[in-house]
Structure prediction request, 172 residues.
Amino acid sequence: MKSENLFPARLLGFGFYWAWLFLVGVSPSPVLGNINFEGIPFEILELAFRLIAIAAIVVFARQLSTDGGRRALLAACFIVGPVSTLSLLAAGGAATIVSTALVACADAATFMLWLCFFGHMRVGETALYMALSYAAGALLCLAIMNLGESAAIVCSAVLPVLSGCAFVLSNR
Prediction:
């Protein structure tokens, strides 16, 4: 497939990531409400865990640049993303911290997959993809929020998987 023909899949795939982040990774979350652990807002914990996950990705960059490493990052999209989202719904007490760490791992892995993918392009193209995918994700988030609570929960669990599928399709 020609690279130009994959623009919609890439744009939408990264948009799925942004929509998931807007639905789950903010506080108060449109899907999960106001989550905190002993008064500490979810965003602060998630940011701390995300920084740790990104640091781990940087430390293990050489290993993650292999096919096996890419599969590990994709596993975060396909498995950890939905599991973390659904576990955060049921979490209470200390389980909130574990669920938040899982969300952060899925967030960092998915973002790094897309960022490295776009990193092979020129700066202007990368900026265009980032801006358009961000806008697509915001629009998707708004549309999902209007579907009702149950549908929004299902969508928030499925969005990381869709982002990973779009990534796989975009790399063919």
Notes: The chain has one domain: 8-28+40-170.
